[in-house]
What we know:
The protein is mainly beta. The protein has two domains: about 25-370, 6 Propeller (Neuraminidase), CATH 2.120.10.30; about 380-485, Immunoglobulin-like (Sandwich), CATH 2.60.40.1220. The protein has four helices and 33 strands. It has helices at about 1-20, 25-30, 255-260, 400-405, and strands at about 30-35, 45-50, 55-60, 65, 80-85, 90-95, 100-105, 110, 120-125, 140, 150-155, 170-175, 180-185, 190-195, 200-205, 215-220, 255, 270, 280-285, 300-305, 310-320, 320-330, 335-340, 350-355, 365-370, 380-385, 390-395, 410-420, 425-430, 435-440, 445-450, 455-460, 480-485. Strands 17, 19, 20, 21, 22, 28, 29, 32 and 33 form a nine-stranded antiparallel beta sheet that branches.
Amino acid sequence: MKPLYSVLCLLLVVSTCLADDKPTEQDYYPLVRLEVPEGVVLEASSFQLLPDGRVAVASRRGEIWIINDPFAKEVKASQFKRFAHGLHEVLSLAYRDGWLYVVQRSDVSRIRDTNGDDIADEFEVVNADWEISGDYHEYAFGSKFDANGDLWITLCLTGSFGSSVKYRGWCVRITPDGELIPTCSGIRSPGGMGANAAGDIFYTDNQGPWNGTCELKHLIPGKFMGHPGGWQWYDEPEAVVMGKRPEEPVSGSRFMVEAKRIPEYEPPCILFPYKKMGQSASGIACDTTDGKFGPFTNQMFVGDQTFSTVMRVDLEQIQGHYQGACFPFREGFGSGTLGVEMTEQGSMFVGGTNRGWGSRGNKPFAVERLDWSGKVPFEILHMRAIPGGFDLEFTKPVDAATATNLDSYSMQTYTYIFQSSYGSPEVDHTEPKLTSATLSDDGMHVKLLIDTPQEGHVHELKAEGIRSTKGLPLLHSEAYYTLNYLPE
């Protein structure tokens, strides 16, 4: 028995070593924690790369700090200098013509340093045409400048259900001249804003009334985003640009049923499955670095405050509407992810706060940077809808035996109730039959066909059996595609 026992022990050691050698997220995207000055509570809500290579970081507590040499291997507390303070919950930053624009709870202001001491000494209010009631829930998030020079602002409702003061529950635009233009109704509780590579503006909305789960939504002027709690502001004179008030959504319905019934309603591009991908969707960034951040060029990255993660989103347009897949990307951030900023150098800055809500990251706040190691992870790069199924593109060639074996995959579908009460469970589950998996000649694509694609459902794919030609499993084997519209 001793020789057999020795062989078993050897096999155990070998399998343990192989498990230890399995690549991790850290191997591809190492996390750098920036050292914040002692005694400073920097609940990092947003970032802005400055023309001189420094980075501005805003705190939810109303301060702005400048980080010198922010791309250094180690960033020490001495590299931080406070630029401004006394602001009101700054959640977004943008830069133009020597001014740092700040979106705070009450207004859009711009600030600058005029005497070269790196401390802001000139403050101007750009627009303050929305109102605040004092309710803690009335957050204001802003975009960067769009192609027209406008800032897009999403204004959280007063609480979850209503709008006590002007334009709460709306998206507005602030023009270069400081004019407010009502742009979209139906906002509930935004967590961040950002543009894709084409310049279209998106925001994240969080689970609650009329939001069955957390969502990524495309802001289109004149459209309704789903929550009717702020509809009284259609009566404001400047809201005439929005057209008529939409028809009331039916509580207990489904997203796509209402999208077909209400022309003004734009359904969510991405439904982030609750407690699978996260629970509090937050900041948005897009990789426009042309490969400096790895293989995910032009894809979007979305934070989650509760899970302390950054997710990856791959969008496409079907029948003129954005939809697509979300994937796990990076976990392990020190606090609840809030601000996410991609820089032209190919680094992603991530800010965090637990804000008393709690988060998987157990620190009360964090300022961190994510770099690409230069190694390409084995991942599902794209999941695209095709007639009868999906085209899966990978970052590396796939092993033919595992790629064409239907046992390598599993799929289920579900959706959420579109209702006025808080959130929704997964409903209307189906289990499509996988009918074929065909590998392309170059080994980079799998055409995965199913018998019954479900319009308006999340298609949850698990590809745990897939291996690369080098024998590696996928770094993340899960993908979640929101199939609102079927491809023709």
